[in-house]
Specification:
Elements lengths: L6 E6 L12 E6 L5 H8 L18 E5 L4 E4 L10 H16 L4 E9 L6 H13 L3 E6 L6 H15 L6 E3 L8 H13 L6
Parallel strand pairs: 2-4, 2-5, 5-6, 6-7
Antiparallel strand pairs: 1-3, 3-4
């Protein structure tokens, strides 16, 4: 797969604006500021295709990135408190509207910050994906920020905290590149066969 050929295709601020699905899609979900844009840029071998911001809640739309035979879908980050209730409702409608549509959804990449125990929002999203039977992989971001002992402790704790087998979790660092090739392989595998990862 020629990852570096990806381009920004468009953004949707409401479910009514969502484009029709004409390609297999890989979806990226996670809390605000978990590192979705950084991960997408690393995955695509680009520096700034997806806008990276230190300010949580920056991605307020569903952003679509197009490759030759696949579309990457970047959902708005959830769990950011400092937006209005109206804005939160719009985000919820947008995300729920996306999953309610008939789409060729091959994989959901759920990003969770490796430094912390999963939040209630993380668990809610995970339960939604598991109940819906969506093929999914949990990516533990910012793993480079942990010292070796803390890293071992967090990686040992996540399976119990999430109820997901450790074999279906991927430590990831946009800084060092850890996990990038493995994630590309997982995505490419889902293009060949639409089978659940978990």
């Amino acid at each position: 797969m020629k990852w570096e050929t990806a381009f920004f295709e468009g953004a949707s601020g409401t479910s009514a604006q969502l484009p029709s699905c004409d390609l297999p899609e890989v979806v990226f979900a996670g809390r605000s500021n978990v590192g979705k844009s950084s991960l997408i840029n690393k995955l695509l071998r680009r520096k700034s295709l997806a806008r990276v911001s230190s300010k949580p809640g920056k991605t307020a739309t569903i952003n679509f990135y197009r490759l030759e035979n696949i579309r990457l879908v970047d959902l708005p980050g959830y769990g950011f408190a400092r937006v209005s209730a109206e804005e939160k409702r719009r985000w919820a409608e947008l995300i729920e509207g996306y999953f309610a549509q008939e789409r060729d959804l091959r994989l959901v990449v759920l990003l969770i910050d490796a430094r912390h125990a999963p939040s209630q929002d993380d668990r809610t999203m995970l339960n939604f994906l598991m109940e819906g039977g969506y093929p999914m992989v949990v990516v533990l971001t910012k793993i480079d920020k942990l010292k070796p002992t803390a890293r071992r402790e967090r990686l040992a704790a996540f399976p119990n905290e999430l109820g997901v087998d450790a074999g279906h979790m991927l430590p990831f660092s946009a800084e060092t590149g850890e996990g990038v090739e493995q994630l590309r392989e997982i995505v490419e595998g889902q293009m060949v066969q639409s089978l659940p990862v978990t």
